[in-house]
Write a structure and sequence with these properties.
By secondary structure, the protein is α+β, with helices and mostly antiparallel strands. The protein has one domain: Gcn5-related N-acetyltransferase (GNAT) (Aminopeptidase, 3-Layer(aba) Sandwich), CATH 3.40.630. 39% of the residues lie in helices and 33% in strands. The protein has an 8-stranded mixed sheet with strand order 1-2-3-4-5-6-8-7, with helices on both faces. It is globular and about 45 Å long. This is Protein N-acetyltransferase, RimJ/RimL family.
Length: 193
């Protein structure tokens, strides 16, 4: 298995696979209420069988080249993740999302991890448009979309029922030329690779 460093704080991005279902469930249990504020993942992964099934669904998407799931480890513990729930190579589109448990919030882990995943999608897989779908009430995730240089395309009003309330979903996106220009600006300004 590979691990990609997310910086000097020891954080890493690694693939999440079905054999890690127990660790994944423990992570979701630690952050369940925090995650569940905006992300249905906490309602989908409730026991070992559902944890394994969720990770298997992404193993199947990886095999079909239509999605991916990666975990964020910090101080040796799984604390969050970045997911590509949909990737259409023929159309050149992908959606990226995230979740995080509260112990790891506010450290820039999601932004750093998402940057790596988006860079892979654009540069390695030829994706032209990357989307970020987020509840209008999820300010931390909206802030990540902004830090990633995404543009708010619009709002799908009351488009998603979640926990008894219809959610407004914002669609943010970045196009490959914009992504490359921002990456070049970061390299020039901050000496990033």
């Amino acid at each position: 298995m590979y691990a990609i460093s997310l910086g000097e704080d020891g954080a890493e991005l690694r693939p999440l696979e079905p054999w890690q279902a127990e660790e994944f469930l423990a992570h979701i249990d630690r952050g369940r209420e925090f995650i569940a504020q905006h992300v249905p993942l906490a309602d989908l992964v409730t026991d070992l069988a559902s944890s394994r099934a969720y990770l298997q669904s992404y193993a199947d998407r990886t095999l079909a080249d239509t999605g991916r799931i990666h975990g964020i480890w910090w101080n040796g513990a799984l604390v969050g993740g970045i997911v590509i729930p949909a990737m259409d190579l023929a159309r050149g589109t992908a959606e990226v999302g995230c979740w995080l448990e509260p112990s790891a919030a506010g450290r820039g882990l999601v932004t750093r991890a998402a940057r790596l995943v988006i860079d892979w999608a654009v540069e390695q897989r030829g994706i032209h448009r990357v989307e970020w779908h987020v509840s209008s009430e999820n300010e931390p995730s909206i802030a990540v979309a902004r830090r990633l240089g995404m543009t708010r395309d619009g709002v799908l009003r009351e488009s998603y029922p979640y926990r008894g309330k219809r959610q407004d979903i914002e669609i943010w996106s970045v196009l490959a030329p914009e992504w490359r220009a921002a990456a070049e600006a970061r390299r020039t300004t901050h000496g990033e690779r």
